[in-house]
Amino acid sequence: MTDIFDVIADGTRRDILQLLLRRSSDGEGGTSVSQIVSELGASQPTVSKHLKVLREAELVSVREDGQRRFYSIEVGPLEAIDDWLVPFLVDAFGDDAPDIDFSFAPLPESATHAAEVVGRAAASAKHVVTTALKRLGA
Hints:
With 138 residues, the protein is mostly helical. Helices cover 61% and strands 10% of the residues. The chain contains six helices and three strands; from the N terminus they run ααβααββαα. Strands 1-3-2 form a three-stranded antiparallel sheet.
């Protein structure tokens, strides 16, 4: 199984997940590839490539209707990120941890860049730890 941090480290995949999350709150039965392409302004091959990665990580589900495919977000795998992140928030803030705002507004470019950097750092740290453990025979 693909590491969830590696999957979400890519900004385009995060944009797709945010789009699918917004659309899921609208009660639609999924979002077509052409709608994703249109809203993100990305090419169809690029979107399809990223949807394949998201599908393999079980972050999206697909419903076929004739020739068209409709994608929906699957939040279950994101619990691994939540489980990993929460202890840091508790350690940093204790009982004064801030409430998390789940607004669906797009992130500013600077925040998107920061999130991508953090995602890559997490993936890199995971690789370093995994390599070290293998060397130790664990």
